[in-house]
Amino acid sequence: MKYKLFGKSGLRVSEFCLGTMTFGPEWGWGADYETSKKIFDIYLNAGGNFLDTANRYTDGTSEKFVGDFISSDRDHFVVATKYTLYDKPNDLNYSGNHRKNMIRSVNRSLKRLNTDFIDILWVHAWDSLTPVEEVMKGLEDLITSGKVHYIGISDAPAWIVAQANTLADLRGWNRFNGLQIEYSLIQRTPERDLLPMAKAFDIAVTPWAPLAGGALSGKYLRGKESGRVPADSKRRNTRSEQITKAVIEVAEELGVTPSQVAIRWTMQKNQVVIPIVGARKTEQIEDSLGAINIVIPDEQMKKLDEVSEIDLGFPHEFLKEELVNNLMYGGMKDQIQNHRQ
């Protein structure tokens, strides 16, 4: 296991993050305590130190399991949890990005995790109601209090993240050092704005669902159905099947598994990308961890990139047009050496 810096900070996190949404049986498909502990131990023995959970995961059981597992050496681990989603339904102030829910949720998470501090607190999703200033000042106060060390944001528009970090820089507050997004060979739309924004602000990207809910493992092509993923979803359609077949072909060429190829593809980017991978079974985490020991050659990367290519839309496609480039650069773009790329 290698380690990466968490965005524009000195925090060292493993190149592979263990997602713990599967810790706990409350949602009907997660792992029990014993199996969760085995998964955790396999990850730990591989050199992992970065754990991702949330207040909502398995109705709080995930945080409780994580708290138990890290208790013998709390300071070794980088524990990330989230706030925003509800702990109590049908109560407006038990959810959202606002300060009241932020403080309430963090205090509950600290109790479940049985710890005095959270290494990374994620804004779980942008609620489109709370002012950016309120969120950033609330997070700053949590850091000042010692309850939180670093902050990140998940499932939010790029312009919101850019606005928040610019405000933080102007006010002398702590900025978002992490961006959590859905990103995989099947879901590449973050390449339009979110990934370039993260690179420009030196934000670490932690993609969830790098296997697209297991689709990229090839299980649907093998006939292993899952009631959790409809057959007509974005993860199970003609395009996703073509991508999965290409992943399987590359895996066979390299002598590895499709899951390892799909995970590794997210890691071989020109910026810090740390995939979040969960498991319900020990063999799943063992397989996924194999991604840290492989490198996808350029030829195979090109094959995967081409089969999963998306239209970036306006203005990105417009700005790539030859006529537009000639107008912007006087026909001399190829003579400009851009060190920022």
Describe this structure in words.
There is one protein chain. The protein has 341 residues and is an alpha/beta fold. It has two domains: 3-310, Alpha-Beta Barrel (TIM Barrel); 311-341, no CATH class. The chain is 38% helix and 13% strand. It has helices at 33-45, 61-70, 99-113, 132-145, 158-171, 194-200, 238-254, 258-267, 282-289, 298-307, 316-320, 322-329; strands at 3-5, 12-14, 17-19, 50-52, 78-83, 118-123, 148-154, 176-182, 204-208, 276-277. Helix 1 (33-45) packs parallel to helix 9, helix 7 (238-254) packs across helix 8 (258-267) and helix 7 (238-254) runs antiparallel to helix 10 (298-307).
Secondary structure layout plus pairing:
Blueprint lengths: L2 E3 L6 E3 L2 E3 L13 H13 L4 E3 L8 H10 L7 E6 L15 H15 L4 E6 L8 H14 L2 E7 L3 H14 L4 E7 L11 H7 L3 E5 L29 H17 L3 H10 L8 E2 L4 H8 L8 H10 L8 H5 L1 H8 L12
Parallel strand pairs: 3-4, 3-10, 4-5, 5-6, 6-7, 7-8, 8-9
Antiparallel strand pairs: 1-2
Helix pairs in contact: 1-9, 7-8, 7-10
- Series of H and E elements: EEEHEHEHEHEHEHEHHEHHHH
Share of residues in strands: 5-15%
What does the average pLDDT come to?
96
The biggest beta sheet is recorded as: 8 strands, parallel
Structural class by sheet pairing and helices = alpha/beta
List the domain count as a whole number: 2
Helix content: 25-40%
Tell me the name of the CATH class of the largest domain.
Alpha Beta
- The geometry reads as globular
The largest beta-sheet arranges its strands as 9-8-7-6-5-4-3-10
